[in-house]
Write a structure and sequence with these properties.
Layout lengths: L2 H12 L11 H13 L3 E8 L4 E5 L6 H23 L5 E6 L2 E8 L2 E7 L5 H33 L1
Antiparallel strand pairs: 1-2, 1-5, 3-4, 4-5
């Protein structure tokens, strides 16, 4: 082993990078948990930014939240483009019916609410409960964003 490789190895072993864990958005998380309690056969939900960053989730352990957020953002982008090209309007929601369940992505302001449910879910009930939650999440995030901007103004 060369001296350079040894020094580099020593340096790598000593270098520690502090990772900060983003704070949980308790208001959004409460909305997601409440939705799961109200809709039978709901298996999980995730809120993601339009660029695929995870905002909050209530997913089972077998589903990776960051990957689901990225997939939801990709589907949101394609669905928005399809809706605007076909009809010149905005995007509200997309439903994916799979053999093992449903995935529904709702527009929630500049974010998305993705809801996962089993194949036997009542899709009408799912929409009835999820649409207001998507609106509430958009409001929570807008309020958090505007209060963050207000705090930044006061500290400068």
């Amino acid at each position: 082993m060369t001296v350079r490789k040894k020094l580099l190895g020593d340096w790598r072993g000593k270098t520690k990078v502090a990772m900060t864990v983003p704070e949980r958005n308790t208001a959004v998380l409460a909305e997601l948990k409440s939705l799961r309690e109200r809709v039978p056969r709901l298996t999980g939900s995730v809120v993601a930014s339009s660029d695929g960053l995870l905002i909050e989730h209530d997913l089972p352990p077998n589903i990776e939240p960051a990957s689901m957020a990225a997939l939801a953002a990709a589907q949101l982008g394609v669905s928005f483009r399809l809706a605007s090209t076909a009809h010149g309007g905005g995007f509200n929601e997309v439903v994916v019916h799979g053999t093992e369940g449903q995935v529904v992505i709702y527009a929630a302001g500049y974010t998305s609410l993705t809801v996962l449910a089993g194949p036997e879910v009542n899709v009408g009930r799912l929409h009835l409960e999820s649409r207001p939650v998507a609106r509430a999440i958009a409001e929570h995030l807008a309020a958090a964003h505007s209060s963050g901007n207000e705090q930044g103004k006061h500290t400068k």
